[in-house]
Amino acid sequence: MSNLKNILLKKKICKSVWFMRQAGRYLPEFRELRLKNPNFIELCLNSDLASEITLQPIKRFNLDSAIIFSDILMVPYALGQEVTFIKDEGPKLSEFRMDNFSRNNKLEFSKKLAPIYKAIEITRSKLDKEKSLVCFIGAPWTLLVYMLNLKKNKNEINLEKLENKDLKFNLIINKLIEYLCIHIQGQINAGADVVQIFDSWAGLIPDKSIQDFCYKPNAKIVEFCKKKQIANICFPKGINKKFENFHQMVKPDGLNLDPEIDPLWARDKLINVVLQGGLNPKVLLKSEESLFNEATKYLNAFKEIPYVFNLGHGLLPETDPDKVNNLVKFYRNFK
Ligand code: 1CP
Question: pLDDT, tens digit, for every residue of 51-106?
């Protein structure tokens, strides 16, 4: 059994390190490939290149886990929405149409995502047996933020859209869950060991809707994973002290912390779950002294419990790869 899966399912105290967005724009070898491949969706669907990009950070830093190079927006793409990535602005999706959404079928959906499964197969065959291959999905709420264009600006939701009775949120969420479970199963069948469920915009949900938009959908997906014995990690970013409710309601195998969560609070309140991450990726832009001090806080807090060293969100594009290398070395030598 791969290292990360072992920690998650057996709650063993053993060492493991990987970083969110470890394959990405901070690596010159990624930027070089990206320049030659301006269409991001096409790049994600190029199985050989997606596998090569997945393995880039493993070659450089000898991390314990690889995360497949893909995107959470491949699911809306496979459900028929056009997805484009605008430089310096982010993703843009064509208008959501309920009639088109309802007309989707599972076979067609899996066919569109088949190149991702092929990329996982290729990667698994090249990755050391002890290393884990992480696959992922976006949680329904976070996908809806993009699919229905719910954001007013960077940190605010357009509440009027949430009150719109014409949008059948529950129906859309339940349909999405079905497709997301198919995508999880497809990735696991292809050789992934663990699934991470990104709810990156959970922090923007109004309190009165957090049950319906965050806890319940995540719980249904985790329930599916447990039934199929698929090791899972949830990441409801930005919900602060509600991490405790989330943990009680959803009961995932692993929980990724964000930088707002005090590691000592997490250690005391989030029990019987494997904790992962938390370190602010911005500290990688500071002096080595502050970086190692911050890393020490997490490593000391979680010394006696199973903990996967990782970040509180993805590596920033301006990160110096040598700093990442030094952080991995620091972690390996930490006593
Ligand atoms: O070169 C480029 O311009 C593309 C940048 C890029 C990359 C490298 C995007 C566009 N996606 C990715 C890969 C990606 N996305 C991975 C790969 C594996 C790895 O971690 O190494 C993963 C796990 C994701 C997941 C993802 N995509 C999330 C959830 C995690 C998070 O960062 O919060 C989200 C929200 C997205 C949407 C997305 N994809 C890309 C962008 C610029 C965005 C928007 C982010 C935003 O709205 O702030």
Answer: 999 999 999 999 999 999 999 999 999 999 999 998 888 899 999 999 999 999 99
Query: What's the structural domain count of the chain?
Result: 1
CATH of the domain at 210: 3.20.20.210
Q: Which atom of ligand 1 is nearest to the CA of 90?
A: 42
Backbone angles phi, psi at 245, to 5 degrees: -60, -45
Q: Containing domain of residue 122, as a range?
A: 4-333
**Are residues 122 and 77 in contact, defined by beta-carbon separation less than 8 angstroms?**
no
Q: Pick the atom of ligand 1 nearest to 142's CA.
A: 35
**Ligand 1-lining residues (CB < 6 angstroms):** 20-25, 34, 40, 67, 69, 71-73, 85, 90-91, 136, 198, 200, 313-314
In the reported structure, the alpha carbon of residue 304 is separated from the centroid of ligand 1 by a whole-number distance in angstroms of 32
Reference 58, options 138, 136, 130; nearest CA is 130
Compute the distance between CA of residue 25 and CA of residue 15 in angstroms, rounded to an integer.
Answer: 27
**Mind listing the pLDDT tens digit for each residue in 202-213?**
999 999 999 999
Give the global pTM.
0.96
